[in-house]
Amino acid sequence: MSIEYNHPEALLARARRIALLCLDVDGTLTDGSIDFDEDGRESKRFHVHDGLGIALLRRHGIDVAFVTARHSPVAERRAAELGAEAHTRIKDKRACVQEMLARRGLAAGQVAFMGDDLVDLPALALAGLAAAPANCHPWLHDRVHFTSTRPGGHGAVRELCDLLLLAQGHANAALEGFGGAQ
């Protein structure tokens, strides 16, 4: 069985070059809600489909990093579980992404960035593939190459992961890894 996709060729061309996926956390990997208990401890909800997408990317040689402006031990823990880098308390997301690119010897065209709000615009402008969840701030829609059909925290990241796997020819191998080949 061969997995087919229906994305514009220009988007697929961008996706083929990606070696690093950077993700905003609040509103992208989560639904944007931040809960605090009575002791001030933070909790967030992450979607398991996003987690598997991230794991599949890493298995197929694409690095993943979380980039968030907030101090978030919860995001750090989730990143560690998935083998992703965690960059928290980041005031300049673009500079953070540039540092990761320099460290890896990559060009801006080799990074995808997914974010949901205005604070993400500088990093999105740098990225070779700029992406946003369906429920992103309206001003981002015309500034990204890909908008998911799902909202942040509800599988938006997985859609981007699947796009990257498809474009880079790894989708069938990912499916076969779960006994899905026919």
Written description of the protein model:
- With 182 residues, the chain is α/β, with parallel strands linked by helices.
- 36% of the residues lie in helices and 14% in strands.
- The chain has seven helices and eight strands; from the N terminus they run H-E-E-E-H-E-H-E-H-E-H-E-E-H-H.
- It has helices at residues 9-16, 48-59, 73-82, 93-104, 121-126, 156-167, 171-176; strands at residues 20-23, 35-36, 42-43, 63-67, 85-87, 111-114, 129-132, 146-147.
- A six-stranded parallel sheet has the order 5-4-1-6-7-8, sandwiched between helices. Strands 2-3 form a two-stranded antiparallel sheet.
- Strand 6, helix 5 (121-126) and strand 7 form a beta-alpha-beta unit.
- The chain is globular.
- The relative contact order is 0.22.
- The mean pLDDT is 93.
Strand order of the largest sheet: 5-4-1-6-7-8
> Structural class of the secondary elements?
alpha/beta
Binned strand content: 5-15%
Helix fraction bin: 25-40%
Largest sheet: 6 strands, parallel
Q: How far from one another are the termini?
A: 5 Å
Question: How many distinct beta strands?
Answer: 8
DSSP summary: helix tally? 7
Q: What sequence of helices (H) and strands (E) makes up the elements?
A: HEEEHEHEHEHEEHH
- Rg over C-alpha atoms, rounded to the nearest angstrom: 16 Å
Unreliable stretches: none
Tell me the overall shape.
globular
- The chain-level mean pLDDT equals 93
Task: Give a brief rundown of this model.
The protein has 182 residues and is α/β, with parallel strands linked by helices.
